[in-house]
Design brief:
By secondary structure, this protein is an alpha/beta fold. Helix content is about 40%, strand content about 10%. Helix 4 crosses helix 5 and helix 9 packs across helix 10.
Length: about 325
């Protein structure tokens, strides 16, 4: 299977090129781990269809993690890419180390597990999943640099790190001759905190890519909950506890959704596609996004966000209507 990435960006200060939209893969954890209360088990053929359509639509990278089903998502990703006859090196693979209640030395102990789960695909980007290790940032980044020196990984990133912690990580890596490739953060038109807590400006200053997780605010930016608030009742407890689907928040975001609907018609696109398009363009090349998908139609929608460009007036209108979420 031949494919080409679309709307390619350079990942941080590395030589790795990734599409502006990637595919988040937590949903491939087969109902194991904490994802069991969030995602239902997806049949193997459905996973194959999702990843095939992602590749055909221009996505060239996939984001998974140790935490996603204790390696199950990693294994399902690898098995599916093999089933699709994607050669190692033809897709960019990002995964993450789970640091909770662990020391940095655990990185050495578990890198073999990550390699085995993803085999035969190399780890292009390895991230610290949360800023809560028992070890210092210095120890974590120096151990990560050891893994890079040994050829186990191609680049180093973090996830959910504050601006101060992100800068510290970058500074430690610089002393080893590397840089911080990314900081994976929650970011969407309805959750713009990285714009006022210095994360975004720091990322731009040090040349680090921001990878936006939950870029559609877990479906809120599709507009479906605005048109049918009763859908909220069918959501899982974990999803509702992590993201607010309150009637107040739906009402507050309605003007934004209405503008997205109007703009989407001009581009023959969906509301969600316009929301993603704004996210990956408004800050130049700094921000990329990893929406997930449990259905073929969702991944087709995600890839379609790279097929058009909003004009400056549209970008500014969307920015103005979502300022309340900064």
């Amino acid at each position: 299977m031949e494919f080409q990435g679309k709307l390619l960006r350079t990942l941080g200060n590395t030589d790795i090129r990734i599409s502006a939209i990637g595919l988040g893969c937590w949903q491939f954890s087969a109902g194991k781990g904490m994802g069991a209360s969030y995602w239902s088990d997806i049949p193997d053929q459905q996973i194959i269809d999702i990843i095939r359509l992602a590749l055909e639509g221009g996505i060239n990278w996939f984001d998974t993690a140790e935490f996603y089903g204790h390696g199950t998502s990693e294994k399902n990703l690898s098995n599916t890419l093999q089933a699709l006859d994607i050669a190692p090196g033809k897709a960019v693979i990002a995964t993450k180390w789970w640091p909770i209640m662990k020391f940095a030395g655990n990185l050495h102990k578990t890198i073999g597990d990550r390699i085995d789960c993803l085999s035969p695909y190399p780890i292009d980007l390895y991230m610290v999943h949360q800023p809560y290790s028992l070890s210092s940032i210095d120890a974590q980044m120096n151990t990560m640099a050891d893994l890079l020196d040994a050829g186990h990984i191609r680049s180093i990133g973090v996830s959910n790190f504050s601006a101060k912690a992100m800068l510290k990580a970058h500074t430690v890596l610089e002393k080893r001759g590397y840089g911080l490739a990314c900081n994976q953060m929650r970011y969407s038109l309805m959750f713009r905190q990285i714009e006022n807590n210095h994360v975004l400006t720091t990322a731009k200053d040090i040349g680090t890519t921001i990878i936006a997780w939950s870029p559609l605010e877990q479906g809120m930016l599709s507009g479906k909950f605005h048109h049918n608030p009763e859908l909220v009742k069918g959501l899982g407890i974990m999803r509702k506890s992590l993201f607010s689907y309150s009637s107040r928040r739906i009402a507050a975001s309605r003007p934004l959704i209405e503008a997205l609907e109007r703009i989407s018609e001009k581009h023959s696109a969906s509301v969600a596609q316009v929301a993603l398009n704004w996210l990956i363009h408004y800050h130049g090349d700094t921000v990329v996004a990893i929406p997930g998908a449990t259905k073929a139609s969702q991944v087709e929608q995600n890839t379609g966000a790279m097929n058009f460009t909003l004009n400056s007036d549209e970008m500014q209108e969307i920015d103005s209507l979502s300022q309340q979420f900064i």
